[in-house]
């Protein structure tokens, strides 16, 4: 059994954390940068640790590292050496681990130890052009393998509990990541979550059922699901995934607001996250959290019913 299966054997729902980038932005840190939230790793590591800790205090069982947009190439473009860039990627895991240690030290009663998930963002995050919501990379699977190989090895060397292979817009990128995990002999359980355009399709237009069917045969895939997706599509997407696999389903959609990439702003109203998250559990999800524009408050709302 992997750590997800072990935890789900004694706990009905694994509560994930919420947004990182929009949360540090709400606390006054600008993410208007090609590195996006990853620049906090060298500008405000204290803030990175603080946000992780606040999600744990809200009831999260998992904190996800600030490595979504962290790549050796990206840091080197900002003037860091290759060695410094590698250290920053590993630091993302270390900060999350430090937050877990602080959280456990705060608690008087014994409890389950939280997990650290290493965020493995898509190639589109490195491009910083929104292509993680389209999948139109214009490169093949071998090129994606080359892109992910170094970062995955660096993240794994810092010993996270899980890999969060997230916001994937196309199945070819999931295939590339699986190839890296096998070629590098990385044994850390991974979840694979896709960005989705509607109630049945991932961002490049492929049916999510096709992705789930393929990942069902992949031992490295400990959970399958979606993130960075409009919440109104989640129940239907869970149903599509459930028809193809018995693996745990992971969902952490956006708040319900809509992102305008042209002016990098959010519009509309957020959903009542705690209430609708109950429906996702009824539909079959076992790992539940939030993505863009969700906060510790939304995670606390989920934990309030998930941990009763």
Description:
Helix 4 runs parallel beside helix 13 and helix 8 packs across helix 9. It is globular and about 50 Å long. The protein has one domain: Homocysteine-binding-like domain (TIM Barrel, Alpha-Beta Barrel). The chain has helices at residues 3-8, 21-26, 40-43, 45-58, 72-77, 82-106, 123-127, 141-157, 171-183, 208-215, 234-242, 273-283, 296-306, and strands at 14-15, 62-64, 115-120, 162-168, 190-194, 221-227, 249-252, 258-260, 265-267, 287-288. The protein is an alpha/beta fold. The mean pLDDT is 94.
Q: What is the fold's blueprint, element by element?
A:
Elements: H1 3-8, E1 14-15, H2 21-26, H3 40-43, H4 45-58, E2 62-64, H5 72-77, H6 82-106, E3 115-120, H7 123-127, H8 141-157, E4 162-168, H9 171-183, E5 190-194, H10 208-215, E6 221-227, H11 234-242, E7 249-252, E8 258-260, E9 265-267, H12 273-283, E10 287-288, H13 296-306
Helix pairs in contact: 4-6, 4-13, 6-8, 8-9, 10-11, 12-13
Domain Hcy-binding: 2-306
GO molecular function, one term: zinc ion binding
InterPro entries: BHMT-like, HCY_dom, HCY_dom_sf, Hcy_S-methyltransferase
């Amino acid at each position: 059994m992997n750590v997800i299966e072990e935890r789900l054997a004694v706990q009905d729902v694994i509560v994930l954390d919420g947004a990182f980038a929009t949360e540090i932005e709400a606390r006054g840190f600008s993410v208007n940068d090609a590195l996006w939230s990853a620049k906090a790793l060298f500008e405000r590591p204290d803030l990175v640790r603080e946000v992780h800790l606040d999600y744990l205090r809200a009831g999260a069982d998992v904190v996800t590292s600030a490595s979504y947009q962290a790549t050796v190439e990206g840091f080197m473009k900002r003037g860091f050496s290759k060695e410094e860039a590698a250290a920053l990627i590993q630091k993302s895991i270390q900060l999350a681990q430090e937050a877990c240690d602080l959280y456990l030290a705060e608690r008087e009663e014994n409890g389950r130890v939280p997990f650290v998930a290493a965020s493995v963002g898509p190639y589109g995050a490195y491009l910083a052009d929104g292509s993680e919501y389209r999948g139109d990379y214009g490169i093949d699977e071998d090129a994606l393998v080359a892109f992910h190989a170094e970062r995955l090895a660096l993240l794994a060397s810092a010993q996270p509990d899980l890999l969060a292979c997230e916001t994937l817009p196309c199945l070819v990128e999931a295939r590339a990541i699986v190839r890296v995990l096998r070629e590098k002999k990385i044994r850390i359980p991974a979840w694979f979550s896709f960005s989705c355009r509607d109630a049945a399709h991932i961002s490049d237009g492929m049916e999510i059922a096709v992705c789930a069917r393929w990942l069902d045969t992949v031992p490295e895939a400990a959970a399958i699901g979606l993130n960075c997706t409009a919440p109104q599509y989640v129940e239907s997407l869970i149903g599509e995934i459930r028809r193809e696999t018995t693996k745990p389903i992971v969902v952490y959609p956006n708040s319900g607001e809509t992102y305008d990439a042209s002016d990098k702003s959010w519009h509309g109203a957020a959903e009542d996250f705690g209430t609708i998250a109950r429906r996702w559990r009824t539909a079959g999800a076992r790992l539940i959290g939030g993505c863009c524009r969700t906060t510790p408050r939304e995670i606390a709302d989920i934990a309030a019913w998930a941990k009763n």
